[in-house]
Amino acid sequence: MRAALVGLDFGKNDFAASLDELFLLAKSAGAEPVITITGRRASPDAALFVGSGKAQEVADAVADLQLELVIFNHALSPAQQRNLERVLKARVLDRTSLILDIFAQRAKSHEGKVQVELAQLQHLSTRLIRGWTHLERQKGGIGLRGPGETQLETDRRLLGERVKALRAVLAKLRRQHATQRRARGRSETFSVSLVGYTNAGKSTIFNTLTKAGVYAANQLFATLDTTSRRVYLGEVGHVVISDTVGFIRELPHQLVDAFRATLEETIHADLLLHVVDAASPVRMEQIEQVNEVLREIGADHVPQILVWNKIDSAGLEPAVEHDEYGKIQRVFVSAKSGAGLDLLREAIAASLKAALEARGRSRSEPVDSEDMHA
């Protein structure tokens, strides 16, 4: 499907990287980006998001290049989407819908499919309900008596019932996860979760650490379903390592909400391996985006090790960095070549051993303030 990409620069420093990402998202969804149209504004236009002049420029490109789809690098309101489709005479997708579409294509497990469908229906419900408001305003108008209102009520009710059913399924899955975690807790097995920006290399690191053979590809959102494996790490014994869905800037709230069952592995982990693409020019912004989602799901309290991956592309050497208290802060690795992965295993074991000792202390004696900084 031939598409135009549209992005507005509101003065943020990661605009170019965000557009590159939109290109990859569009390709991941199966679209063929033909042209990218950009503009600068202080704030979005209420009716068309881009303003009438820019909308006409996009409309001309759609007509000249015979494009079927226009993808916006932003979240559009239902009204803006409808207005744009009328002006552009083409299907309009916003960033949220695009990400949801990719998730729908990639979900393989029953749980993944349920989570994606719930997210899509929550997104659709705002469009459905607001899309029908003109009928509600004209209740009883000529040609709108009965069927129009009935259709709206039916659509709302069916959608509401499906959302309710999906929430019930996810609630059951969450209870199952909680039971599994309690079993791990009773056996005192540590849990480690891999988190990070999409395409940072989490699945490749997961495969190398666990020999799991999970699908890993150079594409956005290759992993949607959480996979867990047990790994033996010397003194700390068996550890459960989980690979999770990648994060992205402006990750739709519907997805964060729907994927709570999956992301709870992260909330309850003993340690997070925050995988960073060391070669990315916007890696610091990506780290902040991931931390923002972690705050949103209540996982910002979990200890983190930053794993700087792809050091071969960034011209860096394998290394371990400690903070002023001697705590491991960063490990530099290449999942592709295997460089530094022995250091990563040692770092995980050392961090968990410290946590194990702290657990032992907290059971036997109160921890004084000096111990806290040891």
Automatic annotation (TrEMBL):
The keyword Metal-binding applies. InterPro entries: G_HFLX_dom, GTP-bd, GTP-bd_M, GTPase_HflX, GTPase_HflX_N, GTPase_HflX_N_sf, P-loop_NTPase. GO terms for molecular function: GTP binding; GTPase activity; metal ion binding; ribosome binding. Mg(2+) binds at residues 203, 223. Keywords: Coiled coil, Cytoplasm, GTP-binding, Magnesium, Metal-binding, Nucleotide-binding. Its main location: cytoplasm. PROSITE patterns: G_HFLX. One of its GO terms (cellular component) is cytoplasm. GTP binds at residues 196-203, 221-225, 243-246, 309-312, 334-336. It is found in: Cytoplasm. Pfam families: GTP-bdg_M, GTP-bdg_N, MMR_HSR1. Its cofactor is Mg(2+). The keyword Iron-sulfur does not apply. Residues 190-356 form the Hflx-type G domain. Residues 156-183 form a coiled coil. Monomer. Associates with the 50S ribosomal subunit. GTPase that associates with the 50S ribosomal subunit and may have a role during protein synthesis or ribosome biogenesis. HAMAP family: GTPase_HflX (MF_00900). Belongs to the TRAFAC class OBG-HflX-like GTPase superfamily. HflX GTPase family. This is GTPase HflX.
